Every structure is written in C-alpha cells, then in structure tokens.
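Hi everyone, sorry if this is the wrong subforum. Our group has a chain we'd like a structural model of before ordering constructs, and none of us has done structure prediction before. Sequence below.
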Amino acid sequence: MKLDSHNCHSGQPSPLVVAASVAKNFGSVEVLKGVDLTVKKGEVVCIIGPSGSGKSTFLRCINHLERVDGGAIWVDDELIGYSRRGDELYELSDAEACRQRRSIGMVFQKFNLFPHLTALENITEGPIKVLGVKVADANAEAMDLLARIGLADKRDAFPAQLSGGQQQRIAIARSLAMRPKLLLFDEPTSALDPELVGEVLNVMRDLAVNGMTMIVVTHELGFARDVAHRVAFMDQGKIIEIGAPKDILEAPSSKRTKEFISAIR
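Answer:
Right subforum, don't worry. Here is the predicted structure as tokens:
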C-alpha cells in the first residue's frame, strides 16, 4: 500500500491523533470514504451520527483492530498498524500492533470484562502481564482507580455481581491502568439501562477535566455539548462537519446534520 505524505509540523506541537484520508471497505461496501481528523493532546472529540455511518469502524481503525484500505493514522507521531519503507507501507506483525495498542485504551459498548476475574483482577491483569508492573504496585494503583470511579467496595466482586454501569466503570478503570495516551469510547452507554448512564458519563467527565485525550462515539448529545471541545457529525463514511459543540448541535451548517439532531431529540 502506498502512503500519501503526512506533514503536521508547522512549528506548532503535533496533534496527538492525525487521521488522513482514511478509507475502509468490507468487501464491495465502502464503509469509510476518506476520513480526516486531527485531535490535540487533552482534547475531547465526540463523534455523532446515524447507525451504519462508519463511526465505530473509524474508532477501530485508530488502534488497528481494523486495518485501513487507504490513507493513514498517526498517534503521537507514530504510524498506526504499518511500518514505512520508502513510499511503501507494510502491515505490522500482531506483536508489534499489540505494542502500539498498549498506549491506546478502548472502552466498548459491551464491557468485555473477564468473567472469572474479580474487579481488582480485571484491572491489574494488563499492567502485571503486559507492562510488567509488580503485583503490589498494580494492586495499589487499581485500588486508587476503584476509589476514583466510586467502586472501592467492589474490589472482590465478579462481573456477574455488578450492574452494567458498574461493569462499564470497571472497564474504564481497566483501560486507565494501562496508562494510555488516548482513550477511545465506542458508544460506552448504549448497552446500559437509562438510570445507569449518568454514573458512567460522570467518570468520563472527570477524565476530561483531568486532561485525558478522548475520542467518543456517542448518542448522548447532552454529554457532547457539555464535555467535548469539538463535535464531529459523521454520515455515510465521511465527516460531514466538525466544530464547537454549540455550533454543531444548535446551528449546524449541513442539512443532514440538522435532520439527524432533530430526529434524535
């Protein structure tokens, strides 16, 4: 695969995330049709749009859970999923891709916790096995994270003993334990009962206040309005428009964005 040139150095600090002309096909279906996005360190970008618009696929391309068919993605100036030799790109081995993925946390719709491990063990598994953190240090850090998400009393509970909201908060803590540069959220509240949504969004608000760089695919327009620095509206594999939450959610320039927001309200 050939690579177009990428230049985001203009004397300014490089963005943490650069997606350039990202294309993705599933068979003959074009799911992503040239997506461009830059995200600065400490920025929260919410991506909204109808189901099937390519939002989740784009997120999965950022940590190479899906391979791109065109364009490229950089995180912290490192090309994701590929190494470059001359003008040609070569896909990284699974081990190299996993190494890149360590610094990009991802929180899914379904909580994906290990059912046979306690809350504490779910959080410490990655740091101990992958990062080589000492058990005592991993446990101490996990307890700090459990306190931060309001679940210190659930350290010995198994996922089946926790509500959906509690499981999702543990999933967020598990991502944080890997000390990521970037957190990706794929509709993190869509599998939750309505009364449990707030407790997860509150944890995400706290992360935003503390400067975590986040890309959040969400239908929660209130959260996007209050927490995002920018909101992107995506439809049919493209970012149709992106801007300040107030502009996109209250005075969108695209007719398609207007239709979507009035339908979802």
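For your construct planning: The CA atoms of residues 18 and 74 lie 5 Å apart. The chain has nine helices and twelve strands.
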